[in-house]
Structure formats: C-alpha cells, structure tokens
Amino acid sequence: QVQLIQSGGGVVEPGRSLRLSCAASGFDFSTYTMQWVRQAPGKGLEWVALIRWDGTHKFYADSVQGRFTVSRDNSKNTLFLQMSSLRPADTAVYFCARAPCGVDCPWGDHWGQGTLVTVSS
Amino acid sequence: NFMLTQPHSVSGSPGKTVTISCTRSSGSFASNLVQWYQLRPGSSPTTVIFENSHRPSGVPDRFSGSVDSSSLSASLTISGLKAEDEADYYCQSYDGSNQVFGGGTRLTVL
Question: Among A26, A115, B5, B56, which is most buried by a count of CB atoms within 10 Å?
C-alpha cells in the first residue's frame, strides 16, 4: 500500500535552516508529482510547494518563495523540503502528499503522517 | 488568485445529514475541480472526495460531493452522521499549479 513516512522536523531558531524528508513506498514514486502542505497551530491547511515527477518544474506559495526549496531523489524514492531563513510564522505541521493528477491539477490523495517544525528562539 | 469560502462550523445529530458549502470567488469548478479533506486533530488529512464528486476507495458512501450549475459552489454532504465524522473539513481547488484551500469547517456531531 502507499506509504509516505516523514522525518526531519524539530525546533529551530529564527533565521536558521531545516530539511524535511518524505520517504515513499508502495507506488512508482518517479512517475508522480508530489507536494508539501502545512498547518500552523490553530490555523487551516496551506499549500507550500509542488514538484513535478521528474523534478524539472517546481512551484511555491508566495509565503515561502525564495526561502524554501523542494526537491526529490527518484533513485531513493524520497521527497525533500529545504527550509531556509525560517520565521516564527513558518511554525506548523508539515505534510507531504502525493498529487496524482500532475502539476496542472494538483491535489493530494495520500498523505504523510506530518512533522512538526517549531521556529523559536 | 482566487479564494474558497466555507462556513466556520456546522453541526448535526447522529443519523442526520449535514452539508458543507464551498464557494469559489472566481474561476470555475467545472475546469478546476474541487476536493474535500477530513482532518482530525493529531492526524494527517484524509481525502474524502476528489474531482468534484468521486469517492476514494475506503471512504463510506455516506460522503458525497457535488457542484452546482453555476460551477462556483461545491458541497460536501455527509448522511447518516456518526460520532467518528466529527472533524474539520477543507475544500481545495486550483488554477493551474496555484492551489488554494478553504478556511475549513468544524463539524460537530451533537
């Protein structure tokens, strides 16, 4: 069955960096668009980043553009989110998700368990 | 960019039917389809409806989705309410690669 196992969250000071990982299994990872979505404490869901199956097209929410980088290693079935210049407003639970329709019709069908990122001094 | 507007909360008694609405500020659900996600505290989202009205395998047929004739309003209907349905529900749609979530609706089962 489809599994997305996340790792890499934690507490980090403002301005520092952190990398999240999402290990996929149970499907052909290299043929699927993937994405990151977050939920800040007490808030709703917010889309963060999207990456095409081959890694050639990447898209970001305005709130993270220029600070976050989404990438993938299809040889290791793993999705990444490199977060830099972190701000307290980036504090959230981050979810990875498979996007079965592609970059032009993005939505998530399977989701990781979520990982908490806390940005605080 | 467009927005998706949902009611903050809805409630219903066990066995009853509730409907959650989602209104799109611009564009159309006819060409940019809507999804619905269930989110319980401490859990990851569960997709309950995709592409306006399709239900993933494993989701009970008590859950149904529709889009009205204007294609600007979508609805999630849950019939035969159960205590386990108590959760936050989010609609989501897109315009190309730009993806938007509604603000979420808290469903309380009385």
Answer: A115
Dump pLDDT digits (tens) for B31-75. Answer: 889 999 999 999 999 999 999 999 999 999 999 999 998 888 999
Using one digit for the tens of pLDDT, what is the confidence trace for A77-86? 999 999 999 9
CB contact under 8 A, A39 and B101: no
CA–CA separation, A33 and A12 (whole Å): 29
- Residue A89 has a CB neighbour count (10 Å cut-off) of 10
Min Cα distance A85 → chain B (Å) is 23
Confirm or reject contact between A39 and chain B (CB < 8 A).
yes
Of the partner residues A104, A105, A111, the one whose CB lies closest to the CB of residue B44? A111
Q: What DSSP state is assigned to residue A107?
A: -
